[in-house]
Amino acid sequence: MPANGPADTLNYFVAGYIVIFVIMAIYLVSLALRRRSLTQDLETLEVIDQEKGKPEPGGFKPRLETKDVPVQNGESRV
Amino acid sequence: MQAQPRVLTILDYASALLLTLATGMVFFYAPTEAVMGLVQKVFYFHTATAWVGMLSFTVSLGAGIAYLRTGNRRWDLVVLASVEIGMVFMLIAIIMGSIWARPIWNTWWTWDPRLTTVTIMELIYAAYLMLRQGIEDPDRRARFGAVYVILGFVSVPLTFFSIRIFRTIHPVVIGGSDPQATGSFDMTARMLQTFLTSLVVFSLIYVDMLWHRIRLGELADKVEQLKLRLS
Amino acid sequence: MNVRSQVEKIPAHPAASSIPFRHYFQAIGAVVWKDLVAEMRSRELLSGMLVFSLLVILIFNFALELDAATRVSVTAGVLWVTFTFAGTLGLNRSMAVEKDNGCLDGLLLAPVDRSVIYFAKVIANLVFILLVAAIVLPLYSILYNVNLFNLGLIWVIFLGAVGYVSVGTLLASMAVQARTRDILLPILLFPIVIPLLVAAVKASSGFLQGLELAAIQPWLTLLVVYDVIFTAVAFMVFDYVVEE
Hints:
The complex is a heterotrimer.
Chain A: H1 10-52
Chain B: H1 6-29, H2 42-70, H3 73-105, H4 113-133, H5 138-169, H6 179-183, H7 189-230
Helix pairs in contact in B: 1-7, 2-3, 2-5, 2-7, 3-4, 3-5, 3-7, 4-5
Chain C: H1 2-8, H2 21-42, H3 44-63, H4 68-100, H5 103-109, H6 114-144, H7 151-175, H8 181-208, H9 213-242
């Protein structure tokens, strides 16, 4: 295998690094998309909640404070 | 959903920056290996991502035990986040390893103990996700998930040893006699630096992603609770 | 329910863990007996597992073209694949019956330690799987003209079954509560049971080929280690699986 100088494995090297970045990017995008979809769901649900006009049921509170924070620029920052 | 904490934003930028730095080091700073050529450089991120995969698995074990003992649902979110991220990074590690193997050992795959065990780990992770998907009740889902993660974690060393013994009695037929021999190399100082930097950078990226994924989990939980309440 | 009345005869203790051993084993015995009796009446579990095993062996006959020589070396593999798959059927069925009939709730209300349920189910499942093996082995011997009456092999089958059932019962308890219950158990079980499978196949193969004990020893050790570790772990986490 060892010839004059190192083997020419440039293609594999490039392929390897493309793989890393592509997979990470796909995952990050998936996180972003899921966040967007959930945020929309949350807004819809909160609207329904307001309309129902229910007093806060005893013994249950969403864990995080629910202020109607508008999502900035409609984009999820990941 | 609460706006992202400032620390997380800083972490985001830091991770992106450091990743660029590490990539630069790999591309330009680290020397080209004499025998294998450029593909050897795949090693840096390959080991770093594999390390993150292992770390994830361990974190999910700890979080699983913590959940069972405390019943605090935040731990369940950590388990889920860690498993998911672990799967992603381990997958990257496996593919990169395969890409490395191809020109060096002339095969895309070998059934050596480490690779086989890691693949089984991926399947255990996948099974965990499927288990969660099949259960409606959030509390039960969290509990069962934690139990499975514990069982899975315990099984991995046993799997590794069983295949190791298997392999010493039946030497690897595909891919040459001893993969270790032809694939190994001595690290120069620059290589070592690049290697360590990659490890640190990916650990940081792991923390960053874990945090994001946990936040996503919190959001999902909120939505689910609200749905249950309103229906 | 019969079992409850039997189990209730055991005097209740304020702390379940302080039940004397005698009562503990009595409780386990009661639950095991219930399962065995129920199965003897319907026999649906055993017959299902048995027919399935034979079908799998039949399929192997066509899938792997076995001449006399290869037959001996793949026997161990074929046997263990068969047991693994038939085993999931048995486990699924065994736990599903429990859940569907509400027996589990009855058992949970009885004043016994939760682990009683776990051990009882393990023992019952073990009995079922060993019964199936006891029938499959002679049949396989006849069909393929291979002598399977080998003490070492029987010992391996016992050890393997113990490990398989320990993990399997626990996972089946979880899987049966999910929507995707039938497909979920194999997905959960198989990756975890691989070390057991590897060791069982190699050990079985070793005994069938008449290798000396020293060569088989590591596999037997691995089997025992697996059994001990997983029985212990399953015992520790079972509470979390059945709590309401």
